[in-house]
Request: fold
Amino acid sequence: EAVRAAGYEHEDMGMDWRTVNIIVALEDRSAEWHRALLGGADPWRSLGDDQAVLCGYATDETPELEPRSQQLAEQLAARMDALRLDGSLSWLRPDARAQVTVKYKV
Reply:
């Protein structure tokens, strides 16, 4: 249902919700993390396959403390999705992207 709700309705979009096959494979890593972090092992060596990148900051550009460009990109993407769903931009795919660049005067 999530694939259908996202709008993947035929193969030329990359997948069709009616024929997609989703495999879920989860492993509990909490015991490994606990041992690595509290047991003295080097977590970077023992848990090297768990990867993530996180970057962010707060700013006073908006009341939500988000960068203005991020907020505008989120609003643009939401509007694009609404127009895709109502058929106004029927050519737009569910994985459409939005990028906003802001030029600041100093």
In short: The beta strands are 9-10, 15-16.
